[in-house]
Amino acid sequence: MTNQFDLTDDQREIQELARRFTADRITPHAAEWDEKHIFPRDTIKAAAELGFAAIYVSEESGGIALGRLEAALIMEAMSYGCPSTSAFISIHNMAAWMIDRFGSQGVKDKYLPDLVTMDRLASYCLTEPGSGSDAAALKTRAVRDGDDWIVTGSKQFISGAGENEVYVTMVRTGEDGPKGISCLVIEKDMPGVSFGANEKKLGWHSQPTRQVIFDGVRVPAANMVGGEGEGFRIAMMGLDGGRLNIGACSLGGAQRCLDEAIAYTRDRKQFGKAIADFQNTQFMLADMATELEAARALLYMAAAKVTANAPDKTKFAAMAKRLATDTGSSVVDRALQLHGGYGYLQDYPIERFWRDLRVHSILEGTNQVMRMIVGRELTRQ
Q: What is the pTM of this model?
């Protein structure tokens, strides 16, 4: 930012580039992707041509080396068309960044060229059937055998599972708790890797979600990202950025629904005049716009802190994620109400955004966990 309250010219150019891409390649097709559960791999790959597959991967590794605010601007713009697709691209970026930031040169050379171009797609594997919010209790185990790790266990709710080729996976290599967790890059075609059925979800229909199952998978020791026992720290650092991106996806989706509500209430007439002329409608729209701008300002500030590696970056990322996702869902819900019965129909985009944004207060750490993080930071002596 040029000052505390504005974007730089470069940031505005990035934002506009993402908006044009969304208008051309995402918005016209998003309803069909949702209705028919289409995974738009070609569109996602086209985003990579703009650098959107490696937003904060270093230039040495082929990325565009932008900050977390620029990433948030991109995610916000793309979610204006489809939050599900934007969130998927965010997850790929998180996995690529982990490899670039913590991987050895060998791991970088092996995976990043194809991830930067999205010739291969990446998933982030932390959650398990028995450990969601309590991520440090994960049980997927890796046992050393010569030059390999033998991995056994399963991961739950994995975006891109079955479609993606690369899985950045948190595994237990040592003692119970966070210090016994390490990070391995596992490939789809390694013997012993399989996938559960595609989950039947409320929203996020443009991306597959499955369980990933590891049955004695032999993974080269060279595929470890970071040192042994560093996986949990890496996972949490990745989540700072992931929380910002998912918050940005809520902002973009909510902005779309606010714009749709404004247009609809101008056109829709009841009792002899446009709904937009009623004071009640104007008050609702005013509150929606005000709350959205407040959430956006906090998220942008948190993004700047994460980029700068500020000491309070995790607290602010949690605050911003909580506020942006709760606000986004609230704004979309009111936009649906302003559409009346039509808002409940698939002929209008509101109900799709209502469904897609609902999960944002759950993933990347539930909003209850976000409150725990903030509260712990506030009361720490």
A: 0.96
